[in-house]
Description:
about 120 residues, seven-stranded mixed sheet, globular
Amino acid sequence: QVQLVESGGGLVQPGGSLRLSCAASGSIFSRYVMAWFRQPPGKQRELVATISKRGLTNYADSVKGRFTISRDNAKNTVDLQMNSLKPEDTAVYYCNANSGIPGGAYWGQGTQVTVSS
């Protein structure tokens, strides 16, 4: 099993930046594909970005060019650098670890990001 704890959320003005961090423990971090999801108010959870075990990244169209996902396998962390934030980025952001086998997906508790003037 993997335990995930997110941090770094908060209130930011439009155009500002935030950096989210997710600390993992309990298993071999490098074996997992890591991802950030978000759930805007009143909407379904959606994929924001993924990073493979070897560091290959993929992004939702809505965040391409503004967000950057990175991982440090030595520190067991995955970060999401968010720049040029927009009000529509307001959501609870969740860290996800996926081993690729049935039952091998884990979630953090989420961190709130609010973009508002």
